[in-house]
Specification:
This protein is α/β, with parallel strands linked by helices. Helix 5 packs across helix 6 and helix 7 runs parallel beside helix 10. It contains 14 helices and 14 strands. 39% of the residues lie in helices and 18% in strands. The chain binds iron/sulfur cluster. Iron/sulfur cluster binds next to loops.
Length: 363
């Protein structure tokens, strides 16, 4: 059996193109339909000369993932897509159709996550398998195809799904290269956001390599002890180091680019006036935008509860009064996002136990 080429492997595809001796413009049209416009596989293949299609389809892998299921929010415009990887593991992507028409896709970069944040079902999975660039990019291709069938276009790609993207740095960089490449997706870097739990050196490396790509930091507390209680990695990367990294990133990135600071509001944990004061002091002098996020409870963290709306609003008002750019987020797709990571976690556990008991045969 021939090893099939990835559609994103530019060198190999161009080599194949030369072998097949066909018009180079046909390859450009094929890529435009599939990667930029979200056309169907058939529509993209129709751009190739008829005599070339069978050998092209035989030699080139168009998709790295198989769509397992789709759940649409009953409350708003969110859809959760579950994909099966070639290792028979599930990952999820979420499409957010915002009322303004700006559609965002949240992609996963790993199966599971080693960061083990207390409030996250994915972090409780106990496994972390890196996704290959083709597996991250195929989430974009398939979401774009789905949206195109509704007459919509994808505007933003955010790395906020399963996994810590900077624990899979090599794949992340290759993915960003392909996403921003003019002959592939041609996604403006300013419409890409990478969210990290806070790995200072890796965040600086990312800012150096892709200065126009937006960065988000999952901060969740400006108190070292509270933060370390919520996020085990905070013990390795203390707040002082993170702040130094943000100063450096602000220096590297364009002057109009802010680092997004993600802050999950948890009742009695990080939502008091003192917590707000600590946050204001910690962010002083930085070019940031604070996002206050409501918490979706998970089965594995019964000790955590989200702050109620008045508490979230008064916390936000304190930040705004101190001159911090702040957005108080209300849940989008709460009914599908509420189970974020949980369904996948259960399914993947079952798959691992079946695989290790030798009952599964991968096709
Ligand atoms: S919140 Fe993000 S970094 Fe933390 S465990 Fe979950 S997926 Fe990993």
């Amino acid at each position: 059996m021939i090893d099939r080429l990835s559609i994103y492997d530019r060198q190999s595809i161009e080599q194949l193109w030369r072998e097949l001796r066909v018009d180079p413009h046909a390859l450009r049209r094929f890529r435009n339909v599939l990667l930029k416009h979200g056309g169907s596989d058939e529509a993209a293949l129709a751009e190739l000369p008829e005599d070339v299609r069978p050998s092209f389809a035989e030699r080139v892998e168009l998709h790295a993932l198989e769509l397992h299921s789709r759940t649409d929010s009953r409350q708003d415009g969110a859809s959760k897509l579950l994909f099966r990887t070639c290792w028979d593991m599930l990952i999820e992507s979420v499409i957010l159709r915002i009322a303004t028409g700006r559609t965002t896709l949240c992609v996963s970069s790993q199966v599971g996550c080693a960061a083990a944040c207390q409030f996250c079902a994915t972090g409780k999975m106990g496994i972390a398998q890196n996704l290959a660039p083709a597996e991250i990019l195929d989430q974009v291709v398939q979401a774009r195809q789905l949206l195109a069938s509704e007459g919509r276009t994808l505007r933003n790609v955010v790395f906020m799904g399963m996994g810590e993207p900077l624990h899979n740095e090599e794949s992340l960089y290759a993915t960003l290269e392909s996403l921003t490449a003019a002959e592939l997706f041609h996604q403006p870097p300013s419409r890409i956001l990478v969210s990290s739990v806070g790995l200072p050196d890796a965040m600086i490396r990312l800012a150096r390599r892709f200065p126009a790509v937006h960065l988000a930091l999952s901060l969740h507390s400006a108190n070292q002890q509270v933060r370390a209680g919520l996020m085990p990695l905070a013990r390795r990367f203390p707040l002082a180091e993170l702040r130094r990294a943000l100063v450096e990133i602000n220096r590297i990135q364009p002057a109009n680019t802010e680092v997004m600071v993600e802050y999950l509001l948890l009742a009695g944990v990080n939502d008091s006036p003192e917590d707000a004061a600590e946050l204001i002091a910690w962010l002083a002098g930085l070019r940031v935008h604070v996002n206050l996020i409501p918490y979706n409870p998970i089965d594995d963290a019964p000790h955590l509860a989200g702050s109620d709306r008045p508490a979230r609003e008064s916390f936000g008002a304190r930040l705004k009064a101190a001159g911090l750019k702040t957005t108080i987020r209300y849940s989008l797709g709460a009914d599908v996002a509420a189970a974020c990571g949980q369904l996948v976690r259960k399914e993947n556990r079952r798959r691992i136990s079946v695989q290790s008991s030798g009952l599964t045969q991968r096709s």
